[in-house]
Design goal:
Residues 102-121 are annotated as: Disordered. The protein has one helix at 85-113, and strands at 2-3, 6-12, 16-19, 24-36, 39-51, 56-62, 66-68, 73-79. With 121 residues, the protein is an alpha/beta fold.
Length: 121
């Protein structure tokens, strides 16, 4: 996918996103590979990010592979890629299991404290 004009918002690309020299993007980008030769402002998450000689980036970058050509500009903060989504899901699932078990325990406690009514024959 290539941006030659202006785009604002959240962009999700499975492979490569190219912001051409005439392109401008503002928002949050999620891509496998991001090539910037135009302007980008916001947060980007990519396995590989290239800022070319006419590229200007302002914001936050999450990537383990960042290159900036001579003449390219970056003003912001970089962080390692956040690819622990699988671990996060496992933790969230474990927390959910704990929550369900706690609810089951409360229900059982309520049943144990209910007054017993003897059946009349």
């Amino acid at each position: 996918m290539q941006v030659d004009g202006t785009v604002e918002g959240e962009i999700h690309v499975d492979k490569t996103l190219i912001i051409s020299e005439s392109g401008r993007a503002v928002g949050e980008i999620f891509a496998k590979h991001l090539v910037i030769n135009g302007e980008f402002e916001g947060t980007c998450h990519a396995d590989k990010i290239e800022i070319l000689k006419r590229g200007k980036v302002t914001g936050t970058i999450y990537s383990d592979d960042l290159s900036i050509e001579q003449g390219g500009r970056f003003n912001g903060v970089t962080h390692p890629a956040e690819n622990n989504t699988d671990n996060k899901s496992v933790v969230e699932l474990a927390d959910k299991v704990k929550e369900v078990k706690a609810q089951e325990t409360k229900v059982q406690e309520m049943k144990d404290h209910e007054p017993k009514v003897a059946a009349k024959k």
